[in-house]
Structures are given as C-alpha cells and as structure tokens.
User: Which sequence fits this backbone?
C-alpha cells in the first residue's frame, strides 16, 4: 500500500526536472538612467527567469502587486514574440517563473495573470498548486475585441474574451473594493401616516399596522431624512435583522391585514429612527414585501464614512484594446494591453507608493500606468524592444509628454524617473580548452557582488574594512579577491576581525597551508567551489525571442 500523501496537481513531461538557476547580478547602466537620480524604479533588460532570481535576495516579500501577460502559447508566431512553445515546455518554464514570483510577493500582495483559453485552464490548475487553491480570489473576464473584429479571416471561433486569474499571497490580503461616493440620492422615499393605525406585538416588538389607504409613500429628492426602499427577498431574508424579521413575522400576514398593509416596527435598524417601516404584498398571490431604511447613523455622523461595493469580474474593454496600438507613443500590435485595463488592476490590488512588478513587460504598459498612478515599479524585458519601446515610452512618461492612456484621467504632468539595468553574463564560462574560468567581463566589483550572491551574502562593502564586502549575519562576512592568498595575508586579515566574527574568502588561488589555518576563516577556490551549485553559461530560459511578421486584421477604432 502506498502511504505517500497525494495532492491534486497538474503533471506533464519534464515537470520534475529541476533548474538550478545561477543567481546573476544586475549591472546598472548609468548612461541609460532617466529622471530623478534617487528613484527606486528599475527597468531591467534580460531573461526574466534569471532576472527574477537576481531580485529574490533583496526583494523577496516586498512586491505588493504582480501583473504578468505571458505569451499565450497559441501556436501563432506573434510580432516580437515566439508564442509557439511546445505545451510541456511552456508549463515547465511558467512553473519556475511563478514560483519565483510568489517568493517576491509580500504577504498581503496579489498576483494577476492574463491569459486566453489556449493554456488558461492548465495555468489555473498550476496556479492553484503554487499559490494554494484557498488563495484563489477570482477571475476577471475581459472583452478585448468587438464581435465583428477578427484576428484572422480563416478562424473558426472568434476570441473576444480573455481571463485574468487573481490570487493573494496569503490569507488576510484585502483588495481595494469599489468606493461609493457619499450620497443621499437613494434615500428618496417619505412615508406619511394618515391615521394612528392598529398596535400589535410581533416577535417581542411593538408594531403599528396601517391598512392599505391609511398611509402614503411619497418619492421625492433624496435627503438625510429620507428612506431607501429595499426588497425583502432572496438573501436579504437571511442576511440582516430586517430581512429576518420580515421572514419570521410578516411573511404570510396578508390573510390578517390584507394586501398593501404597512408595518411600523419599533426597536429595529441602525438609523436615527426608533422604528422601521415594512410593506406586505400588494397583489393577489404575491409574497414579496419591502422595507424602508433610513440613512445609517455612522454615515450621518462620520464625515470619513466610506461605503464599498464588490469588485466586478467582467469588463468590456474592446474599445480600449482597439485604440491602444499607439498608446504611449510606441506601436506594439500583438498582445499590447491598454492602460485602462492596468489602471483597474492597480486600483484594486495596490496603493500609492506600493511596489509593482511585471516580468513580461512587452511595451511597458504596466509600469507606465503604475508610474502615472504613483506606484514604484520593476519591469523586466528580454527583447530588443526593451530599448526601442520601453525606454522611449518611459522617457515620455517621465517628461510628461505622454498624454495618452490614463494621463488625462489622472492629470499626469510628468516626474519621477528610473534606473536601467542589464542582466550580467554568466559568472563562469568555458575557455578554448573546455575548462571553466571566470567570465573576463567581470571586474573586481562585479566578481565580489556575484560571489556574495552565489554564497547567500548581501553585498555591502565596508568602507572601513576592505575584507568585509558583504554579510550574511552581523558577525559573518565574505571577501572575494583574485590575489594569491598566503598564510601571511591570512594572519593580517585575522587581526582585522573581531574575536566573534567569521569570514569566507573566495579566491582563484592560495597556498595549501591556508586551509583550516584559522577556525573563523574559510577559504574557497573559484571557480571550482561553484560548479556544483547551479547551471552556468545559460544565455536565457526564454519564452519569447523570435521576431516574425504576421498579417493581422485588427483595425484601430476611430
């Protein structure tokens, strides 16, 4: 009997193959930085799986909202993307990225992934496995095309709807619900009693019964003295005290009080009135009634009172998709998302100054929108359009000259900035003899930072001690050098350390008697000490590199 605990999961060829990613470093390119020099925004050029790994040490648990729009694996070669990836390969490459993205999310963060039905169902099961099914919140259904607009004339089925699967990192994460403006518009009913009515008791409460014709219900302009009309039916009958009172004591009283009776029930409700009005059925055979609620006391007394409504899960954005082709001043015909869509996502799942991440950046719609909405951001893109599209678009955003998308809606005038980073090449490469060597492009600073990352240390050079280039704890440090380590040098370094401090030295060569010379100093040889830790030499693990042309019958709307 197999006692191994089983779980519901998606399986495919190659799923169990582990990829030991090299923790690359990110190299800032100062001449490509733009705008505010103190900005924390990051535009990264490089393979997104390796870039995510590079971010993990510093940004794990810090990203509030992640939106990705990965290649859909439709079997069509899209402009600027190779979207035809074999099914198992697509799932394997997505799985590794999703695991890294989850690590980067804050505990109160949200993950949003847009997809169509080519891989959508498989992706949903995979997301359940990675995030936990209990953390699935909803799926947004987005109309992206009008019914009479097609991508190709020979398609049998017209794809009008795409999905955005939305997950939280952990229980307790709360999205921003829709906010209703404080208003008395719906409190526009007024009840006039024409006589004293008949007093009875129901459910331990004093009730005045008015027969049909003994009262008037007047509909007028809303005010704080008005009443809101609510049907006492459906879930209302179980959901609040008024609904339950109607269900338990007024339902069926038409045989006692006749059609169209009005009930004035004392001791119920949360408004300024000591009573609440109910009406019974008005037509023969009807069972439904209504009650009339005053403005809640909390709303009357609290100027900061906010009333919310649930977030919708369907959005008709066909017009926005039809008109976004040149949004931001860059053309990106296949797969471009309008800023109006990203505004909805960021409004509900982030707040100002939160950190946003998009690792399939495309034409930079996500981070352009995030920038205009006052969010901090990280964007990752492998293709050349990181230079041709993302950079130029973001420069216009920073300058304030981009007035497309949501600019007018948020009164965008420019400001902020970003820093540009390239993903460093692999730390190790094979030479002409097939031997592993350190990549010659690495200078001393890059090598020190890369070794710190590979060994799990935070790179942070100590200006007062050249042997402390990074730390894992406040007493454990790392030092990387290409100089020959001798016993004499070790003895000097020993005196630079406090008695309870330890040091890892990574070097290309050293005297044999340096090993274990001091109990608090460990010496490792590079590259030999690294070869079994991860995969070196990989150019990328990409999903999206081939540039091809495809005729698309998708006209811009007027």
Assistant:
């Amino acid at each position: 009997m197999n006692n191994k605990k089983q779980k519901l999961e998606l399986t495919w060829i190659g799923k169990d193959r582990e990829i030991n990613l090299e923790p690359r470093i990110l190299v800032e390119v100062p001449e490509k930085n733009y705008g505010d020099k103190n900005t924390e925004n990051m535009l990264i050029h490089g393979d997104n799986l390796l870039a995510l790994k590079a971010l993990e040490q510093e940004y794990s648990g810090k990203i509030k909202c992640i939106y990705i729009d990965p290649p859909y694996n439709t079997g069509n070669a899209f402009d600027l993307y190779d979207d035809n990836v074999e099914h198992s390969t697509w799932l394997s490459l997505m799985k590794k990225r999703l695991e890294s993205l989850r690590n980067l999310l804050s505990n109160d963060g949200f993950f949003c992934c847009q997809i169509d039905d080519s891989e959508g169902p498989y992706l949903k099961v995979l997301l359940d496995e990675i995030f936990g099914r209990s953390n699935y919140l909803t799926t947004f259904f987005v109309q992206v095309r009008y019914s009479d607009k097609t991508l190709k004339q020979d398609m049998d089925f017209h794809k009008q709807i795409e999905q955005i699967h939305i997950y939280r990192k952990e229980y307790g994460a709360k999205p921003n619900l829709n906010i209703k403006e404080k208003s008395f518009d719906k409190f526009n009913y007024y009840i006039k009693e024409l006589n004293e009515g008949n007093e009875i008791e129901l459910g331990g409460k004093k009730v005045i019964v008015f027969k049909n014709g003994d009262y008037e219900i007047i509909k007028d302009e809303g005010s704080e003295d008005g009443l809101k009309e609510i049907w006492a039916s459906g879930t209302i009958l179980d959901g609040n005290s008024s609904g339950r009172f109607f269900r338990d004591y007024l339902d069926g009283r038409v045989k006692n009080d006749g059609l169209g009776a009005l009930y004035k029930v004392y001791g119920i409700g949360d408004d300024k009135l000591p009573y609440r009005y109910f009406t019974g059925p008005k037509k023969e055979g009807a069972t439904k009634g209504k009650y009339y609620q005053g403005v809640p006391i909390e709303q009357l007394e609290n100027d900061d009172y906010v009333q919310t409504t649930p977030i919708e899960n369907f959005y008709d954005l066909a017009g926005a998709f039809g008109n976004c082709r040149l949004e931001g001043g860059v053309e990106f015909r296949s797969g471009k998302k309008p800023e109006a869509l990203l505004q909805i996502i960021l409004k509900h799942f982030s707040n100002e100054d939160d950190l946003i991440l998009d690792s399939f950046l495309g034409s930079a719609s996500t981070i352009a929108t995030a920038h205009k909405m006052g969010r901090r951001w990280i964007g990752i893109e492998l293709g050349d359009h990181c230079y041709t599209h993302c950079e130029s678009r973001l420069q216009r955003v920073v300058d304030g000259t981009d007035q497309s998308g949501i600019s007018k809606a948020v009164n965008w005038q420019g400001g902020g900035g970003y820093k540009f980073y390239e993903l460093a090449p692999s730390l190790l490469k094979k030479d002409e003899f097939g031997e592993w060597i350190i990549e010659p492009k690495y200078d001393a600073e890059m090598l020190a930072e890369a070794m710190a990352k590979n060994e799990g240390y935070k790179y942070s050079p100590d200006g007062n001690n050249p042997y402390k280039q990074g730390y894992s704890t406040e007493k454990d440090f790392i030092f990387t050098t290409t100089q020959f380590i001798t016993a004499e040098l070790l003895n000097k370094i020993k005196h630079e350390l406090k008695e309870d401090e330890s040091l890892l030295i990574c070097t290309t060569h050293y005297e044999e008697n340096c090993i274990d010379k001091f109990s608090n100093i460990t010496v490792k040889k590079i590259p030999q000490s690294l070869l079994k830790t991860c995969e070196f030499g990989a150019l990328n693990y990409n999903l999206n590199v081939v540039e091809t042309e495809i005729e698309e019958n998708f006209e811009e709307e007027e």
